[in-house]
Amino acid sequence: MKKTQRAPAKGGQTGDLLEKKATPQGVRAKKRAQTIERILEEANALLKEERFSGFSLRKLAGRMGLRLSHIQHYFPQSTDLLAALFERFIAKDSDEFLTHFEKARGGPEARLRMALQNLLADDAYLDGCELFMSEMGALAKQDERIATAVQAYFEAYHSAVDTLLRTLNPDLTPALRREKAVQIVALIEGTLRIRVPLERRHKGRVEKLLTQGILNLAQG
């Protein structure tokens, strides 16, 4: 007697076909993302060693053992790669200060001082600031994408400090809070850029002085 084979359920068959069609695309997308991340990691390392003046896609390709055209497939110009690196830094670290503040305990002043102390001890964040903020301003004048990234960074930074000011001084009007946020960001960024000579002159007191400066701006 001949056995009758049952056809697979229509829904299951459709699902299998869709999965087969989607899988190659998913694999390609995953591989592309992994390649881009590898390029960004190596580019970041090269940038730390060579700084902006010595950075080039050709050097990066040689470092990675790839053809220049392979790098250019993902980042046609060096400024495209630099902008992507800066955007990556923004995504990871633009709200670092607020994160430190939110994790700290105690009253607003104690939390602020602890946040600044942690920020000044965060080597990865400080390295990123030193690497990008020192020269991105100049590059922003030449490249629109970098200019957009720099603007996005400071908008996120100002927003984080605006949130901080709501805790430090709830009586501030929105307009005054925005104005003071700009001043505080400038104070923090200035301190970070000259933190080494400041630490030599005011050993162990930099975060205390910075805390007082921010409080004076918040309450003044």
**% residues in beta strands:** under 5%
Could you name the CATH topology of the largest domain?
Tetracycline Repressor, domain 2
Low-confidence stretches: none
Structural class by SSE content? mainly alpha
Give a short account of the largest sheet. none
C-alpha termini separation: 96 Å
Structure description:
With 220 residues, the protein is mainly α. It has 2 domains: 67 residues, Orthogonal Bundle (Arc Repressor Mutant, subunit A); 143 residues, Tetracycline Repressor, domain 2 (Orthogonal Bundle). It contains 11 helices and no strands. Helix 4 crosses helix 7, helix 8 packs across helix 9 and helix 9 runs antiparallel to helix 11. The mean pLDDT is 82.
Topology of this protein?
Layout: H1 10-50, H2 57-64, H3 68-74, H4 78-93, H5 96-103, H6 108-120, H7 123-140, H8 144-168, H9 174-193, H10 195-201, H11 206-219
Task: Please sum up the structure shown.
The chain has helices spanning 10-50, 57-64, 68-74, 78-93, 96-103, 108-120, 123-140, 144-168, 174-193, 195-201, 206-219. With 220 residues, it is mainly alpha-helical.
